[in-house]
Predict the structure of DUF4242 domain-containing protein.
Amino acid sequence: MLRKYVIERDIPGVGDLGPTQLGEAASKSNAALGKLRGIQWQHSYVTRDKTFCIYLAESEEAIREHSLLSGFPVARITEVSGVIDPSTERKCELVSA
């Protein structure tokens, strides 16, 4: 079963990369993913010096293997235990009623 993870990567200056460079990074990641099973990249948030990547994976080990193949560092892997958004408040009100 695939679980959702947030992967924090320390990549100095990543926020200054242009579309071409980000596309090349995505291509590199996709090439590594093509060699693996049990892992899917959903999307990434890019900040000044970090990326926060959302993956579905069978295990943390699959994420670490992707890191080795792609060359992108892993600072932290956190499994997602749930999701909330602004509508969560309303859902709680409906359950309580």
User: Anything to note?
Assistant: The chain has a mean pLDDT of 94. Residues 3 and 56 are 5 Å apart (CA to CA). Helices lie at 19-33, 60-70, 87-96.
